[in-house]
Amino acid sequence: MEISTDKYKVAPLDKGAEAVAIIKEAEESLKRMTGEKITLIAYEETEKEYR
Q1: Which among 26, 32, 37, 43 could disulfide-bond with 8, CB atoms 3.0 to 4.6 Å apart, if both were Cys?
Q2: Is the pTM of this model over 0.90?
Q3: Which residues neighbour 2 within 8 Å (Cβ) at sequence distance 6 or greater?
Q4: What is the 3-state secondary structure (H, E, C) of 1-51?
Q5: Each residue of 14-26: b (16+ CB within 10 Å) or e?
Q6: Can you tell me the distance from the alpha carbon of 12 to that of 31, in angstroms, rounded to the nearest whole number?
């Protein structure tokens, strides 16, 4: 599967240990709910709308 967009890029969470832990907890909760392994991916916007 390929997801391509110019508006988002993978969020750099190398310094976000707490954010990664929250994502992993959410993945485990979804796995318990669905019975399937779920992978969440963090993206950040690359283009900001200025008003």
Answers
A1: 43
A2: no
A3: none
A4: CCCCCCCEEECCCCCCHHHHHHHHHHHHHHHHHHCCCCCCCCEEECCCCCC
A5: eeeeeeeeebeee
A6: 24
Total number of residues shown for the chain: 51
Side chain identity, residue 42: A
Contact 44, 8 (CB under 8 A): yes
**pLDDT value for 33:** 97
Structure tokens of 42?
Answer: 């963090």
The token pair at 51 is 């008003």
pLDDT at 49: 53
